Amino acid sequence: MSKTTLPFGRIDSITLDMALPGVFAGQEKEGHVALSEVWMHSLTFSRPGRYMIEAESGAGKSSLCSFIYGNRSDYLGDILFNDTNVRTLSIEQWCLVRLRHLALLPQEMKLFAELSVMENIQIKNRLTGACTTVQIMDMLERLGVAEKADQPAGRLSVGQQQRVAVIRALCQPFDFIILDEPVSHLDATNNGRVAELVTEAAARNGGSIITTSVGNPLVLDEAKHIRL
What we know:
This protein has 228 residues and is an alpha/beta fold.
């Protein structure tokens, strides 16, 4: 059985070429689609970089994250990793992309309520081997949830769960990290702590940050703001 390979060593750019969610087809000149700087445009995210996608509810920000991460393909137009159309990637290649090149924090977080905080994080970290237990505990400490490490995730507040999900997303190498409303339930202090962790991880990996917001944005210095 041949070893799965990718047509690129690293993802240096992600390009949306006239992309549009299928549900918006026929609305190209209407409402938020007409005002968008993303849909029906040629837009490139480069590495390294910092990007803030600002959106109204219903504009398709979570869909955008899912399209880039390969969870959904119900869009018009094309998405390219460097010069590779993502529609040409096999399931096995997508697995490699998500293991080595793309990290995602979905808005709904997707923690297992019955598993402990550490177990939730280690599910991913065992696949990537990216962090030691000491490093994970340090991140939990910095985000103020170290004492919750052995507690079931379902017993945490939404804000605490959000911080745990951020740490889980950081437990891998990446060229781009995609964060869908990562601090929507956090105050200014914890927003800053999360921004610090994410920025440090991006610097270590030489990676880019793409984050979305409908009102409480992750505080990133020198981020390029894009209206969805």
